[in-house]
Amino acid sequence: MTKPRIGTFLSVVLTLLVVYALVKWGIPALSREVTSLPFPLPVPGTLMFFYMMLTIIALFLIVTFSDEGLNDFLRPVKKLLRGGYTKILRAVVLTAIPAVIGWQVYEITVPKVEVPSSLRIQHPSSNFPKSFEDKKNPIASLTAADVDAFIEQAKANEVQFIAQVQEDIDHWLEEVDPEHVLEFFPQGSMKKLLTEIAAGEVNRETAKAALSEKNLFEGRALYAMNCRACHGDSVAGDGPMADGFKLRPINFTDNGTIETIVEGYTFWRVSNGGPGLPAEATPWDSAMPEWKLSLAEEQRWRIIQAEYDLAQKTPRIPESH
Amino acid sequence: MSNFVKRIIVTLATALLMGPAWAAVTPSKPMSESTEAMLEQGLGIYFQRCSFCHGLLGDGEGPAAKYLDPRPRDFTLGTFKFRTTESGELPTNEDLFRTISRGLQGTAMQAFDSDLIKNGLSEDERWAVIAYIKTFAQEFDDPELDPVATGKVIALPANRPPFGAETVAKGKAVFERAKCWSCHGKLGRGDGNKEFRKDDWGFPIRIRNVTHPWKIKAGGEVEDIYMRFTSGISGTPMPSFVKSLNEDDRWNLANYIKSLQHELTGHQTLRAQPVQGELPEDPGDAVWDGAQPMDMRLAGQVVSAPRWQNPSVEMVTVRALFNETEIAFRITWDDPFKDVTHDKEQEFNTAELSKVGGMSSYVEANDMVPRALETFRDSIALQFPVRPPQGTKKPHFYRGSSSDQVHLWVWKADLDGTEEGNARGWKQPIKPQAEDGQQIKGQAVWDQGRWSVVMKRPRRTDDKNDVQFEQGVFTPMSVNAWDGSNGEHGLIMSLSTWHYVFLEAPTPITVYVYAVLAFLIAGGLGIWLMRKAEAEGEPDSRNLEEAT
Asked: Across the interface, do B391 and A117 touch by the CB < 8 Å criterion?
């Protein structure tokens, strides 16, 4: 036979290398073509092991199919062992292989150090009381009685504000000396209401929109006083305190935060804070306060209304509706 | 008309001169003449986004204002701190645009650029609100006070050698010569003055610690820093250095200040350094230099009343050493004043702030607690869980809970010593351990605006309320800090969330034994095969030749 041959041993080694390269780099490269994702999909370690074992078994069967084949395979090995490829190469190979094996054994047995970490669930429901599921924001869902009471107050120019904004409004009243306290609202609905009051004919829809503006104004003030330090004045979870916490405050403008939960859930989270979370949400890392210890229910609801408004989001509707 | 053209030219020129660092906050076009529609749009934005701090009248007296330090700007005075105009002048439109776009770092004034935050303001919206804000101060109506028309705008120097060893070294000489240290301290930690200074509004000011870049309000780049001592900061003792320092000096000085900025370490696990022999009690001991530092960021205690959003200590750096029997921590943090007295009489009564549905649960920045020297002590506490952690489960970072207590090591400047105590949640004060349970030793030093405190304790104790330090275990660790002259005491403090401290375990000897054993067996097998092959001899040399 004069056909050029590379020998059985070398072909076995080359086959193993080619298969390894195909699985390690070929498949991920191909995956990018197929999925057109910007990153390759790596082959899992166990699958790699599986492919390589199959290849080794196949090669073993081919090599040991005949005595001749086995001899062909072993010939260069034996030659090496006899020192046929120089004694230096023999010495190098006979030291290198045990060294690699020793190093692998070390890698397997040496203790690994890893920081404890866990997947954190942001909106845990395991301890969410069902009674909160249907809770509606009483500030955001105005009743006819609320609107009527507001119309009466507005007509008499005796609109009641929460204490937190009163001082600033008083400053404004002193300085501007307006006809009506509601004049500091720039919104169209409030202006329309004042025109209607002056004309003596108040439309309930106008009054409802105006009352909603007033409530949002108060909610924003409470948000700025209580929540802004962490969640930021643009509700982006980037307040001045945010860098000091391991769990960054939630960014309400992100999709998948406050719009994926019902209002009752938001209220429950605001009320019970970090300590109210179940273990899967790592309550020990959460700086969210138990606001029920500081804010009255009504204050919490006002803030929630303003928070959704500032984030330009709407809460999820309870499923029973 | 000519005024308008001039304005465009100046704007374009500044945009060109200021280069890439400023590009992000340079508007694409100058502010247009304000119109009714623009002012109306501006009012709408101001009402919704600005008024709760700056007030309906623009007087800086909104509902949230009194809880903040620094206070929101009073727009009615026409005094603006961060400008690119000469000392005492009004700001340019672009100055206001820059402040609104990127905010003032380390203050409640945040970035409003819609490119930076999702919920921000577009360029047109920012111009509209600027037009409205300018209506608060009459000064803006006076053409004689227009800094652009009157040529009071400061440009960056034409010659700006790059940041490097040379500019920094020259800048350091300027820092010495211009006596910057007399306020900012020899090492720039804001510790030059022996007492508080007040700003034009009568509020105590904190002299900037220039090594903390996250507190450099109007930007920490060389260009920003240059502008600050060129324009001066109106309303504060920070003057303009235009007359005493030339452009090159100021540029070099800005480079030096930039070089002082601290780079945060970033990791969450502190690796304690193993030491042979005694652990030092002296914070100045050279052994500490070999230990890995870990920076921990702190926030104001805003989890429960009394809430505090004006903390002084925002970063501490911790190092740890250990030997067979002991562990030692060294905690360093910047504090411009050494406060070593504590007056219990002046402690804040939290009853009013702790009510449900009250006015506020936050402590007012200036009126509720004394912010003065010789009132409250400086203090620092390390906190650890008592129970060894199971997986990631830990006590709450804010003093644990009733079911999961924490162990605190509280160093107090007035005692010059560290007390061990336990807490089960924040509702009860830290309970000091019995006299015979107090085992922490160490010394503390205050130097050049920085505290260094060493806490050293046996790694293992007999007390079931103590944390124990075993090797190979990640022990959660957090920090509470108090700056007495900032009015801090009790729960009016700053705190960190959980980090870890880790004492590396020595590799078990069996690991090495197995590796050597594997090497020897494989080697022996090789030699046996070699002998066997040699004994067989060359089987059939003719075949071999044929094959090759």
From this structure: no
